[in-house]
Design goal:
Elements: H1 2-31, H2 43-64, H3 71-92, H4 97-114, H5 127-148, H6 162-170, H7 175-198, H8 202-219, H9 222-237, H10 241-245, H11 247-269, H12 273-297, H13 322-331, H14 341-349, H15 351-371, H16 377-389, H17 396-401, H18 405-421
Helix pairs in contact: 1-2, 1-3, 1-11, 1-12, 2-3, 2-4, 3-4, 3-11, 3-12, 3-16, 4-15, 5-7, 5-18, 7-8, 7-9, 7-16, 7-18, 8-9, 9-16, 11-12, 12-14, 14-15, 16-18
């Protein structure tokens, strides 16, 4: 039985990796060479990458094939959207071996930690009252602040004008709003939608969608618009036992189809926009930036978080954050080339930092699985999927705080206590 199921699983991953290689050579490196993408294939490493894929896919399958926790899906998406592109670029650009192997070791360390004993938290008494009051106060502040700073005057639902809307919002933003607005979008509003689905309350479902649409209109963040679609889709999609049990194979196929459509759209129309979004931006830009950060900070002093947590205790020798350093020193222009969890770990603490951050991620995923024991699996994953995916492009501390991972875990913890006391109708 194990053999029969592992074959399509491994085959789908190998096919996905082959497509990634093809798209990188024939689309990304060909059209976007000016952004540093190039092809310098090391054929020994190329063969090596497929051995890595077969080995890692086998480990992933063995660890997660019967696992029911929401961390299963997060790890699958990490593997497909970050680990495999990193492996592809390793051979296609002849990148350093020590870096990709440390990342692979870190990923397997995270994977192994999720299968240890779950972290259980005590249920919160009066959770329904606490959640209601907390959500009401936070929602009142967020929307009150946005309206008071001209939100209704700049409201816009035209996708072609979102950058103008975002620029207008940025000119009025403050430090507190930069934390609370993502929490509202990815935590509160998504939770309201999820509660509407759990308890079959149309009012809550429509309220959550309405609040999210209003937030998108006043800020112009496109992910705010698509978040409710993802929540509703996953809430129903993951109810199917067959789909959940074969989620890795289906994700590999689904991602392959989306990227293939983007590539074919370019071939038939000569318009690279869809391919740029779904192949370059979502797949290879995060992986490429990991190597760019590694190359720069392997020659330069590490930051040791002196640009953030440790700034009161130690001087930042660069005088700016790592994103600004890379933008200025590598690209020579002002933008935000944010790097994900492994690149950020390396620029702060070197190769050992990758393993350290991987342990932290494993503990957080254990906590998520423990909190989710009394929750429907489709609901818990919909609440945390977007904050966790921020780690593909953001530092771990930033993802935990600003992008709302810890806040989402807090919301799930309260909700789990409520569901222990209330039976959905």
């Amino acid at each position: 039985m194990l053999k029969n199921k592992i074959l399509p699983f491994t085959a789908s991953v190998i096919a996905y990796k082959a497509l990634c290689d093809y798209f990188y050579i024939n689309f990304v490196a060909e059209l976007f060479f000016y952004d540093g993408y190039y092809v310098n294939i090391n054929y020994f490493k190329y063969i090596e990458t497929y051995l890595l894929i077969i080995f890692s896919a086998g480990i992933l399958y063995a660890f997660l094939r019967n696992y029911r926790g929401p961390s299963k899906i997060i790890l699958y998406i990490f593997y497909l959207n970050l680990i495999i592109p990193l492996i592809s670029i390793y051979a296609l650009e002849d990148q350093p071996r020590v870096y990709i192997y440390t990342i692979m070791l870190g990923f397997l360390l995270t994977l192994s930690l999720t299968r240890t004993r779950k972290i259980r938290l005590p249920a919160v008494s009066n959770g329904k009252l606490l959640l209601t009051v907390f959500f009401a106060l936070m929602t009142t502040y967020v929307y009150g602040y946005l309206i008071a700073t001209g939100g209704l005057g700049r409201i816009n639902f035209d996708l072609s004008l979102v950058y103008e809307t975002r620029a207008q919002y940025s000119s009025t933003a403050n430090g507190l709003s930069s934390y609370l607005i993502p929490w509202q979008a990815y935590g509160v509003n998504n939770m309201i939608i999820a509660l509407g689905i759990i308890f079959r309350k149309r009012f809550l479902l429509l309220l959550g969608i309405g609040l999210q649409l209003l937030l998108f209109g006043m800020i112009g963040q496109k992910s705010f618009l698509f978040a409710p679609v993802l929540v509703i889709f996953l809430s129903y999609f993951l109810k199917k036992k067959f789909i959940y049990n074969n989620i890795m194979t289906l994700l590999a196929i689904g991602f392959s189809v989306i990227k293939l459509l983007g590539f074919l759209h370019y071939k038939f129309t000569s318009d690279p926009l869809m391919g740029s979004i779904f192949i370059r931006r979502l797949l290879f830009t995060p992986a490429k930036l990991h190597y760019i950060y590694y190359e720069y900070f392997s020659e330069m002093p590490k930051m040791y978080l002196t640009h953030s947590f440790f700034s009161p205790f130690a001087e930042n020798s660069y005088g700016m954050g790592p994103v600004e350093v890379i933008a200025n020193q590598i690209y020579g222009r002002d933008f935000s080339p944010n790097v994900g969890i492994y690149g950020d770990a390396y620029l702060n603490f070197g190769l050992g930092g990758i393993l350290f951050y991987s342990i932290i991620l494993g503990v957080i995923l254990k906590l998520l699985d423990g909190i989710s024991l009394s929750l429907p699996k489709n609901i818990s994953i919909t609440i945390v999927i977007i904050p966790f995916m921020a780690m593909l492009n953001s530092a771990l501390p930033t993802s935990l705080a600003t992008h709302g991972i810890l806040f989402s875990l807090f919301c799930l913890w309260i909700l789990s206590g409520i569901l222990k006391q209330i039976k959905p109708v």
